[in-house]
Design goal:
This protein is mainly alpha-helical. The protein has eleven helices and three strands. The chain folds into two domains: 145 residues, Ribonuclease iii, N-terminal Endonuclease Domain, Chain A (Orthogonal Bundle); 64 residues, Double Stranded RNA Binding Domain (2-Layer Sandwich), CATH 3.30.160.20. Helix content is 60%, strand content 9%. The longest helix is centred in the N-terminal third of the chain and has 22 residues. The chain is elongated and about 60 Å long.
Length: 238
């Protein structure tokens, strides 16, 4: 439990965060889910810290992308940031920091063990908010660099992953459908650059095709082709 001596779970968490809190009450608040605060009559859960942490995370990721990719235009930077800070990624970071082991939950949420993706993602943001209030931006940048470093360092992968995300967003907004990817060809030759050919379609209409060493790479290429037509102002099917 969070109420235990600081030498226990909180101290271990501080070590994982790379920061010793001058005001450990901030960290306890970050680990307090609103359901717990409501059930046990505490003034606040971590929603305010979550709000702050969301903004701080966006700033930290934006700064690191800005520094790492000086030639990228604003559009690439914005899409890469969105790709990095989605709920799935934040929940993964919360699990890596073992935040679910320390979160204080109300009765109904406690039965879920604190492992719901939404709870974990919000928890990660709240901890970042507490970290910012206690130590400023530098410890936040250091933590984000450690936790997102591998993803931040793969610019091509960021753009490829974002292509599928952008196409899904367009398809949902314009067609209320999700793209379907189909393997059209697999040569079976290991490590061949053109092993897979994949098409992407909506309602059985092909929007784009892509080739790659892996099925995932070919899917990204197919999405990128469809997006290139969208960015040019035409329907991907044309």
């Amino acid at each position: 439990m969070v109420e235990e001596a600081r030498s226990g779970g909180l101290e271990e968490l501080e070590a994982r965060l790379g920061h010793r809190f001058g005001d450990p009450a901030l960290l306890r608040e970050a680990l307090t889910h609103p359901s717990y605060a409501h059930e046990y009559g505490e003034k606040d859960g971590h929603e305010r810290l979550e709000f702050l942490g969301d903004a701080v995370l966006g700033l930290a990721v934006a700064q690191l992308l800005f520094e790492r990719y000086p030639d990228w235009p604003e559009g690439h930077l914005s899409r890469a940031r969105s790709s990095l800070v989605n709920g799935v990624a934040l929940a993964e970071r919360a699990r890596a920091l073992r935040l679910g082991e320390l979160v204080r939950l109300g009765g109904s949420e406690r039965r879920g063990g604190g492992e719901k993706r939404r709870i974990l993602a919000n928890l990660f943001e709240a901890v970042l908010g507490a970290l910012y209030l206690d130590g400023g931006l530098e410890p936040v940048l250091a933590l984000v660099r450690r936790e997102f470093g591998e993803a931040l360092g793969t610019g091509d992968a960021l753009r490829e992953r974002d292509a599928k995300t952008r196409l899904s967003e367009w398809a949902h907004a314009e067609r209320r459908k999700m793209p379907r990817y189909r393997v059209e060809r697999d040569t079976g030759v290991e490590n061949a650059d053109e092993r897979f050919e994949v098409s992407v379609s909506l309602d059985d209409e092909v929007f784009g095709r892509g080739i790659g060493r892996t099925k995932q790479a070919a899917e990204h290429a197919a999405a990128a082709e469809a997006l290139a037509r969208l960015d040019a102002g035409s329907d991907p099917r044309d």
